[in-house]
Amino acid sequence: MVIELSAAMKFSSLVMTKAYGMTVGRSGVWALLMGVAAVLPLVTQAANLLEGEAVQVTLEKSPAAKDWVPAVTFEKATRHDLRLRVAFELKTLPATPVLSLKKPPGIADWSLNGQALLGPPKDMFYPELEGIPTAALKVGTNVLEARYSVNVYLRDGKLSPASTGAIPLDLQAGDVGKFEIRTGPVLGAAGTDYFTVGCRTRMPASVTLHCDGRTWSSKPGVIHLLRADGLQPGREYEYKLVAELAGGGATAASPPCKVKTLPNKGPVTFVALGDARNNPKIWGRILSQAMKFEPAFLIHTGDIVGNGNDYEAWDREFAKPAEKFLASVPCFYTFGNHENNVAMLYQMFGFPEQGRGNYSQCIGPVQLFAMNRFENWGKGSGALVTMEKQLAASKSPFIFAFTHPPAWSSGSHGNDKLGQEIHFPIFDKYGVTALLAGHDHCYERSEPGGTTMLITGGGGAGLYGQERLKDNPHSKLYRSEYNFLVFRADDRKCEMKAYTYGGTKTPDNERKVELVDTRVWEPRAQAGGKANK
Predict the structure, then answer these.
(1) Average model confidence (pLDDT) for the chain?
(2) How far apart are CA 512 and CA 280, in angstroms?
(3) Is 229 left (phi over 0), alpha (psi -120 to 50) or beta?
(4) What are residue 419's phi and psi, to 5 degrees?
(5) Alpha-carbon distance 67 to 345, whole Å?
């Protein structure tokens, strides 16, 4: 991965505190990422297998590199690809089946004696690599290696950082007793005959999904995505996840959970919201309120966490505060700018079309179109051409597209030119019911003259005022409050109700769900109705 200073400064100080027992400032973040031992000495224990061994780095890419040094001094402002290695001797092997490596959070691509170590994706920050198999060690000389990158900048006439510095590492016996399913179950997309579910294990494992008397299993790793298929429409199923530590020796299981497959006809109720990042308390409470409406599924318009590269934030800000909802209600996701398009999005969240953030799915009288704006949605792009073909062929009474940036907005981010000039003319042409978005932290409904624009960016992130009203003459209602939307659709009409949950300064004991807006649509003309009236 490439370590950016700006990304490092976004990295939560809570993670640093938890991992290293101290809160660090600007220089301390670099110390954690790049190992400046003079600023941040790693607390070592007697069991450190690397105690007293020299950690060396090189800029050479060749496996036969010879210029290994304790620290590399940078000579120009650019991206530098580095390799790290430490050789250590063992007379006997540790008795425990797994090892644990405490390390700078920004170094994530590791191998031991030439064997790649399973762990989080390379674009993640995390302070400890757990579950390293002791079987990868040998009596005699062992070599621990890593690859990583550093972006060096010129600031005030000086290179920053000036060098790699010393890199603190602590390899010690691991604790199999800590093995668990740390994240999830988290339901992703579902249909009339399937559902997807993801999870993360604390150590490399294979995970088996048990449902309807059958099983589906994942490959060994720490991020898992499974799909149960061959199911019946609108039926409730009990399921459970069982994880087995890679190499054996420990198992962990989720509690029994229940999920309902989606209906093949209306009525159908669903909820939508977005921008839940950085506020786990409000995110969890809003979903508790939304669950009272018994939704068949959720649409999330992005910005799930504050920094997608922060591996622990996905538990802290997303999964833990909403465990019950996420394990029982299928979710259709699109992603925002704060996810940073990390690899894990496509490894843990299930989509109707595996691995694709752009997708379409019909659910009773509703058809969904997810627009992943990390991909090209410009004029003539493959994504846009595909969507237009699907829109032209659609017979669904109601169509909802959803993405992160809104085409029309009175909030601080304002209008999205691409959405206005390219997407909305296509939406209007084919009678799309509404575009759902987030990005601006508010609720706003705009009516540009065909397709409705709905912003539901009040899932927990800091709220925005109506700063750009002059740029959005189509605004009908704007509320700077936490919010979620509830839809109910059948073949004759679709009704949306917008609910708020107080604002930033609302005392917790005064928070209440308040209905603030209602919108009703008739079926699209293409489905035999009156388009968007």
Answers:
(1) 89
(2) 17
(3) beta
(4) -65, -40
(5) 38
CB neighbour list of residue 449: distance below 8 Å, 6 or more residues apart: 428, 474
pLDDT digits (tens, 9 = 90+) for 8-63: 333 333 333 333 232 333 333 333 343 333 333 333 344 899 999 999 999 987 77
Cα–Cα dist 135/386, whole Å? 49
- What is the phi/psi pair of residue 160, to 5°? -135, 120
Per residue in 378-409, is it b (16+ CB within 10 Å) or e — as a string?
eeeeebbeebeeebeebebbbbbbbbbbbbbb
Over 326-341, what HEC string results?
A: HHHCCEEECCCHHHCC
Q: Report which of 427, 434, 338 is spatially closest to residue 387, judged by C-alpha positions.
A: 427
CA distance 401 to 148: 38
CA-based radius of gyration for the chain: 25
Contact 391, 347 (CB under 8 A): no
Rounded mean pLDDT, 202-217: 98
On the question of pLDDT at 235 being above 90, the answer is yes
* Residue 40 pLDDT: 35
| 3-state SS assignment for residue 383 | helix
DSSP structure string for 229-249: ES--TT-EEEEEEEEEETTSS
**Coil/strand/helix, residue 375:** coil
Look-up of token digits 């762990």: 119
Give the least confident one: 30-44, 351-365, 469-483: 30-44
Task: Give the angle 109-114-119 at the CA atoms, nearest 5°.
Answer: 35
What does pTM read for this prediction?
Answer: 0.88
- Identity at 44, one-letter amino acid code: T
Cβ contacts of 381 within 8 Å, gap of 6 or more: 375
pLDDT tens, residue by residue, 130-146: 999 999 999 999 999 99
> Is residue 349 a contact partner of residue 333, using CB atoms and an 8 Å limit?
yes
CA distances from 272 to 18, 28, 152, 515 (A): 33, 39, 41, 15
For 60-85, give the DSSP string: --STT----BS-PBP-SSSEEEEEEE
DSSP bridge pairs for 198: 186, 225
Distance between CA atoms of residues 109 and 126, nearest Å: 11
Residue 498 CA to residue 496 CA, distance in Å, equals: 7
What pLDDT is attached to residue 13?
Answer: 33
At 17 the pLDDT is: 32
| Beta pairing partners, 117 | none
Alpha-helical (H) ranges within 147-246 are none
* CA separation for the pair 369, 358 (Å, rounded): 7
